[in-house]
Amino acid sequence: MAEPGVDTRTRSSVITARAAASFDPVGRSVATARAFVRDTLQGWGYSDVVDDAVVLTSELVTNAIVHAGTAADVLCLRKEDSVRVEVGDRYPEREVPMQGAGHAFASLDSENGRGLMLCSALASRWGVEYSPARKHVWFQLDLPRRPVGTRSAGPVLPTALLPAADERVRVAVVQIDRCGALSAWNGDAEKIFGYTAEQVVGKPLADLAAWPHTPGTGTGIAEALQLSRWEGSYGIRGTDGRVIPVYASHLRVRDSQGEPSTVCLLVRDDERAILQTPQRGPVPDPATGTDGTGADPFEVFIGSPAPDDLDGLLQRTVERARDMLDGDAAFLLLATDDETELEVRATTGLPSARQRFARVPVEAGTGRYGSARMPAVHDDLASVPGAVPLLNSTGMRSVVTVPLKVEGRLTGSLGVAAESAGRYSNEEALRLQFAADRIALAVESARLGELERLRRGSLSFLVEASDLLAGTLDRDQTLALMAQMTVPTLATWCAVYTIADQSSDPYLSYVLHEDEERIDGLKALLSKVPPPDPVLTPGARVWAAPGRAAQQAALLTSRRELGLGSSQPVSSGIDTTLATAAAVGGETVVLPLVARNRVIGMLTLGKPSDDHFRQEILELAEDLSRRAALALDNARLYSERVANSQALQRSLLPPELPEVPGVEVEVIYRAAGEGNEVGGDFYDLFPIRDGAYGFAIGDVCGTGPQAAAVTGLARHALRLLAREGFGGPAVLERLNAAILDEGARSRFLTLLYGELWPQENGGALLKVVCAGHPLPLRLHRDGTVEPAAEPQPLLGVMDELELFEQEVTLDPGDVLLCVTDGVTERREGSRMLGDEGLAEVLAGCKGLTAGAVAARVLRAVERFAAEPASDDMAILAMRVPGPFPL
Fold first, then answer.
1. Contact predicate 858/845, CB 8 Å
2. Cis check: omega of the bond before 488, within 30 degrees of 0
3. Are 438 and 212 in contact (CB under 8 A)?
4. Signal peptide span per the entry (predicted)?
């Protein structure tokens, strides 16, 4: 005997819908499988068993992926009274734990068999099916039986949290005759609105009702009163002229004479919970059209207060719209800013993961039913293929769609679909339009709020991106930053193509995927696809080549897999190919990288299988591509400039130093900055004639091309004049005249020039001229340090110079140190190394070789200050080898 108050309708085991997915043998697939099952069951309206199904799926998928080490296949089957989930792996390696006589499940501490233990504890039925190549573990969860008339229940709240009421809750009961005039008005109606029965009886309800009419639609209070049942919000004008928001429930009845009339129950809108029926009732009895309670199960109010986020509001809207019309699926689309396309934002009963953010045109065809701006009812989609593109290949046969409008402007479209033909009529369209009119403003308000948040987030993203791109002038680092900023924020994967010049083809320079294990496969797939055409036109354009290549690769791989036979394991290469094909199977767009009116590359963004880009994301990606293109071109120009500067710098320095008999020579040169400036300090050592060598170390004022010109002039003039037989003073006087001849391009020059003659007794004779340069220092064998020359005027300032040379004899063990002012003027705050500091450093180099002396001086200069050097440095050390130091 059935329990009292329990629905005893026959529970069918016929499968009404199915959803399937496969998951790669990687750890993150467990979470993806949980999300798949949760979304599927919630879309079917089976929220009562979602938690148990997700727990069981998680355990079974973990067993397949982690323990068996194979891909997992998940199949969800929908029935009227239950849901069945099957999880299969391809090559099981573990035995099934037995239960029964002589067998027991593993202990709770053991991982083996835990999934089956959970099935035994949570599922209504479960089992394991084996085949030579596969194993299926399935479980079934029965839907809970609800008492007839049960709608929903709220939590038990403490008394302090209950809403306060100034007086007892009043329910206005009014009755309207077939002509729309009031025929009954109770005392609570008088208390709420202020009118007595004598004042309003006989007047049309439309005179008092403030109906939330939407421009462009013909719905109103008169139409609502003609429905067999209606529930929703509107307003009643009180005696003071103010509109009192009310929540109403209309029921159409017949009086004792058989005349139709409508009974209306009205409460204040903030007390709507008294009348509101927010959830779907039981499936109607085909014989009576009711659910056993006398209520029309099609009518469910969906315009309750919106959640905090737009996605939550839209998802709840489609679920309630489906319940209101007892449909199998529902969808809601929002219009783009130009109102030429509609974007899928929420679905239920449909593969939402594939359809989300897909776009369809507002005007899909000619006539009333081809435009989303008007309500439409399609009795059989099979007879009008493509009438509703969103429902293609979904099994839906009939559909009703209505527009969402705010102030006459199209803001979206709401639709409910059924798997059987002829389910909906104009009456259902009217009901759905009433609901759409009530929620349109709330949806548009939430959409604008989301758009504002997206714009703020986009501005923050672009500011951060600009800072990162401006922080480097390295080409490879710029490419990496471009990709890392787009993945996964804007896309699932990214590829950057670069173009060296107008005659070159695009080259695949960088590839990134949010799953690092798929980068190599993605790169291999893209390398087989011809690159996109470089088009100067701005904006994103769809690129179908990667998707086609992915489909072909997947098809070829599937055929190879079938040809292996059931007893042969599938290679990891096949799994990788299938995973890569799934990753590239969605929408792919290309944005040109345009800098200085030239296409220097393309930024390619991709989504996984059947996924689409939102318009806001594409606009953000376009902004990013403009910034990235300029940064990439700046990096190219900087790299070219550095290469040119380094080549010019190398040309200003001697390629190699000659071997000087009996004298150790060491030179250290350090250019300041990142190699982007030329000129400045220079040095040289060259043979003049047999047994004689010239040496020089100098510093041209400033940097850049003009300084480089003087540097090149000085180095080559010194060699030429010295080899012509001129002495030191004559060489510098002629060089001074040549610098002055440069006119406005001339720069003054400090120069230490000398000639060196190694002596047969082991010493060395030097003749030096110090023209405005830091004085050379001589380190004696006993550790004393003294200047080796006197200061004289620098070059490039005065026409007439009277220079003289000084002789210096280096004894065995002596060192001559020559430096540029980058060494002596090394600063740390107000401190400067200076000549005294350099002499102190040199004094500690007694007994060291020329190379060790130069290295110690450089190390002392670098340690003197924490900041990088701001001036070039040249160090020339010459030492005459001798006996051990004293």
1. no
2. yes
3. yes
4. none
Above 70 in pLDDT, residue 467?
yes
User: Residue 395 is encoded by which pair of tokens?
Assistant: 């099994």
pLDDT at position 152, please?
41
Residue 873 has pLDDT above 90, yes or no: no
Q: Does 303-448 carry CATH code 3.20.20.80?
A: no
For residue 522, with 0-12 CB atoms within 10 Å meaning exposed, 13-18 middle and 19 or more buried, which class applies? Answer: buried
Rg (the chain; Cα; Å) = 43
Nearest of 240, 249, 291, 288 to residue 267 by alpha carbon: 249
| Helices marked H in 268-375 | 310-324, 352-355
Q: For residue 141, what are its two tokens?
A: 């969860």
Name the E strands within 464-543.
493-498, 507-513, 541-542
Burial of 647: CB neighbours in 10 Å, binned 0-12, 13-18, 19+: exposed
Residues 6 or more apart whose CB falls under 8 angstroms from that of 597 comprise 536
Q: Which two tokens stand for residue 465?
A: 């991106």
**Between 556 and 565, where is the model more confident?**
556
Asked which of 42-46, 224-228, 277-281, 402-406 is least confident by mean pLDDT, the reply is 277-281
Burial of 574 (0-12, 13-18, 19+ CB in 10 A): middle
The answer to whether 170 touches 153, Cβ cutoff 8 Å, is no
The verdict on pTM exceeding 0.85 is: no
pLDDT at 154: 45
472-558+577-643 carries CATH number 3.30.450.40: yes
**DSSP assignment of 392-454:** TTS---EEEEEEEEETTEEEEEEEEEESSTT---HHHHHHHHHHHHHHHHHHHHHHHHHHHHH
User: Residue 439 has which token pair?
Assistant: 């929620």
Residue 365 has, within 13 A of its CA and on its CB side, a CA count of: 11
- Please give the backbone phi and psi of residue 534, each rounded to the nearest 5 degrees, phi first: -75, 110
The CATH number of 653-880, from 2.40.50.140, 3.40.1190.20, 3.60.40.10, 3.40.50.300, is: 3.60.40.10
Mean pLDDT over each residue of the chain, to the nearest integer: 78
- Region of 360 (left: φ > 0; alpha: ψ -120 to 50; beta: rest) is beta
pLDDT in tens, 572-620: 444 455 555 555 667 888 988 888 888 888 898 888 766 678 777 888 8
Whether 602 and 497 have beta carbons less than 8 Å apart is answered as: yes
- Domain extent listing, the chain: 15-92+114-142, 169-274, 303-448, 472-558+577-643, 653-880
The residue whose two tokens read 């020329």 is 850
Measured CA to CA, the distance from residue 230 to residue 226 in angstroms comes to 9
Residue 90 amino acid letter: R
* DSSP assigned state of 47: G
Evaluate if residue 699 carries a pLDDT over 70: yes
The fold adopted by the segment(s) 15-92+114-142 is: Heat Shock Protein 90 (3.30.565)
Answer whether residue 100 shows pLDDT above 60. no
Closest CA to 526 of 590, 615, 618: 590
CATH code of domain 169-274: 3.30.450.20
State the Cα–Cα distance between residues 180 and 202, nearest whole angstrom.
9
Tokens (6 digits) for 806: 């000084």
